[in-house]
Amino acid sequence: MNWSRTKTVFIMTFLLLNLFLGYQLYEVNDENQLSLISGNSTQDRLRENKISIDVELPDDLEEVEYLVGKKEKRNSTDVDALALNGQTAELKDEQTIVSTLDDPFPIGEERETLNQFLTAYVTNGDEYQFVREENNVIYLDQIFDELPVFTNQNEPLRLLVNTDNEVYAYEQEYWNFEKQGDPKDTLINLRAIETLFNQQYITMNQRVTDFQLGYYSFFKESRVFAPIMRIVVDKGEDLGEVTYLVNAFEGTVQEQGILDEEEESLDLDLVEPDEEREPDEEEMIED
């Protein structure tokens, strides 16, 4: 064996390897530096326009996928299980349970015991989180993989609250989610805020008051949920707070809508669950 030649081959191999690793390190440092410059530039522009971020931003999303959801079918077994837990329940349809508590559950003026109620009375109750409260109805969305799955003003859990701050009835649907497609890179959080600024959704002297990562279905009938940044902007006394949804893949922006007349009728259904009504379009979707 020619040891001199072998030694030369080893030296060249290690030299090439070091060059390759050095180039990779250079690329990583370069990307990090560009991200830092971009972040600083965005923050400078916001500062110059007196736009403040009054909330701690979460960690940036990394590679994520779309979600596909399907509502779980409910049956008499689900109803019977609730009957053993101090409730009188019935099937509103094959996907929805309406339940009335034998004894209303106090959740307090600040809703401090809401999570206790969810754990004690609602099937998979720990998989829901508070979204909003209107007209004595608390609306909650589900959580998947530690991120909320926001619906298009069509929350799967609605709690009825009386004037004594007690939950006395609720209506529940449950989604099963699974990831679909290959993981894709997403926008960084500051870039999402910059997108709102560039498209004049947020302007001088306004404030970012809430920022959440999650998933969202941009169409009420859709079962596909895209990763989004849900950003709440305080636009001052005249305009109040407006919620924007930034698609984490494409950077497109949509203002989160308000309840329409058809959706407001849901409250009446909850108050009088036995009242007959025609199913809406989503209820008629075949599984």
List keywords for this structure.
single chain; 287 residues; alpha+beta; 29% helix; disordered C terminus
Which spans of ≥5 residues are poorly predicted at pLDDT below 50?
Answer: 23-39, 258-287
Number of beta strands = 14
**Distance N to C terminus:** 71 Å
What's the tally of helices? 5
Backbone structural class:
alpha+beta
Strand content: 25-35%
SSE string, helix = H, strand = E? HEEHEEHEEEEEEHEEEEH
Oligomeric state of the chains in view? single chain
Which descriptor suits the 3D outline? globular
**How many strands, what sense, and barrel or not for the largest sheet?**
14 strands, mixed
What is the C-alpha radius of gyration, as a whole number of Å? Answer: 25 Å
Q: Average pLDDT, to the nearest integer?
A: 81
Helix content: 25-40%
What does this structure look like?
There is one protein chain. The protein has five helices and 14 strands. Strands 1, 2, 3, 4, 5, 6, 7, 8, 9, 10, 11, 12, 13 and 14 form a 14-stranded mixed beta sheet that branches. With 287 residues, it is an alpha+beta fold. Helices cover 29% and strands 35% of the residues. β13 (241-247) and β14 form a beta hairpin. It starts with a helix and ends in a 16-residue tail after the last helix. The protein is globular, with a radius of gyration of 25 Å.
